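Friendly challenge for the regulars: who can give me the structure tokens for this chain first? No prize, just bragging rights.
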Amino acid sequence: MSTPNQELHRIVSTAIIYKKEESGIEYLITKRSPHKKVFPSKWTVPGGGLETDDYTTTPANSDGCWYYALSISLRREVREEVNLEIGFIKYLLDLALIRPDGIPVITLSFYAPYKSGEVKLDEDAIEFVWATYEECKKYDLIEGILDEIRMVDEILKGKNEEEVKFR
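First reply, four minutes later:
Bragging rights claimed.
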């Protein structure tokens, strides 16, 4: 696919939300609606695009810059998509893709603990489940998501973050 060299990209962030249960560490995954443009009916983790309102509706610093715009956006997306509040957000990895409609996308993947709320899905998702990493293997996840969950699982179980790699 040929895409013109340009600076504008859609910025997307995702949250691998986890909680520690007696059965182990569980991760929230959701099944995308069949009407979605990208990856319809696939299982994934909550997230979505950065919108200018995520930061322009808050005060900028004296140089006209907004800090934490992506964190604010990710928290908003998690609230909208699954009705949850998350704790401290940590960076995992980034990836680039070109959507079927030709729009270039930069995705930043993060992980965060479940903080509060009951899962309530918006119209973009049709199912959800809390599952351990091993249980996640049974779902038709978007390619790469299972590996991201594995990475978080290894980090949470004590593996040095610098040694954890995407396979």
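The two ends are 24 Å apart (CA to CA). The mean pLDDT is 92. Your move, everyone else.
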